[in-house]
Design a protein that fits this description.
The structure holds two protein chains of two kinds.
Chain A: E1 3-7, E2 10-14, E3 19-26, E4 32-38, E5 44-50, E6 56-58, E7 64-68, E8 73-78, E9 87-94, E10 103-104, E11 108-113
Chain B: E1 5-7, E2 10-13, E3 19-24, E4 31-37, E5 44-50, E6 53-56, E7 65-68, E8 75-79, E9 88-95, E10 103-104, E11 108-112
The chains are: A mainly beta, B mainly beta.
Chain lengths: 114, 113
């Protein structure tokens, strides 16, 4: 079985500051990991995914995440926050060959302040 | 390319009533998913279809929830009778295959009074 834990249900940063959203996973097999973003009243949009290739994954909108097996982590970062980054972010995990069944974390609401 | 369409966007009903949601996936996508997203939680998979067959419905409360995808294209999710705890956003997603990226619709926000 797979699960993810997102530390911090709310994160607030200043515009231009580093964004760091934390995700730790638990999986009995090498996982595939994802970050999704959800804007108000919209569906989820894929930011990036790790599928056992390069451990540093670059996504859309300047986001990236690094898979660290030793720490069972897949934290999401962006060097400089923009007001338009304010949204809810979800980390998700699935097992390769698991039929694409995603297990989501509880989400982190990112607030960007001037 | 048109995205995943869902209707209605909002629905308010009283407990014990029935409700149905509709989803039209991206054209050509064989795999369709229904998720339930309760406020403050991440989406939880309810059911997954491959064409018109069910791949996984292990988390679907079958005593009150049902879903179908008769022609392997659009899908409906029904709740009968609804309970207060069914208040949530119901998200539909589709992918071109079992191992490919899922694209999500805007969701239907259900409020049960």
């Amino acid at each position: 079985a797979q699960s993810v834990t997102q530390l911090g249900s709310h994160v607030s940063v200043s515009e231009g500051a580093l964004v760091l959203l934390r995700c730790n996973y638990s999986s009995s097999v090498p996982p595939y990991l994802f970050w999704y973003v959800q804007y108000p009243n919209q569906g989820l949009q894929l930011l990036l995914k790790y599928t056992s290739a390069a451990t540093l994954v670059k996504g859309i909108n300047g986001f990236e995440a690094e898979f660290k097996k030793s720490e069972t982590s897949f934290h999401l970062t962006k060097p400089s926050a923009h007001m338009s980054d304010a949204a809810e972010y979800f980390c998700a995990v699935t097992a390769p060959g698991g039929g694409n069944k995603l297990t989501f974390g509880t989400g982190t609401q990112l607030k960007v302040e001037l | 390319e048109a995205g995943v369409a869902q209707s209605p966007r909002y629905k308010i009903i009283e407990k014990r009533q029935s409700v149905a949601f509709w989803c039209n996936p991206i054209s050509g996508h064989a795999t369709l998913y229904w998720y339930q997203q309760i406020l403050g939680q991440g989406p939880k998979l309810l059911i997954q279809f491959q064409n018109n067959g069910v791949v996984d419905d292990s988390q679907l409360p079958k005593d009150r929830f049902s879903a179908e995808r008769l022609k392997g294209v659009d899908s409906t999710l029904k709740i009968q009778p609804a309970k207060l705890e069914d208040s949530a956003v119901y998200l539909c997603a589709s992918s071109s295959g079992l191992f490919n990226e899922q694209f999500f619709g805007p969701g239907t926000r259900l409020t049960v009074l």
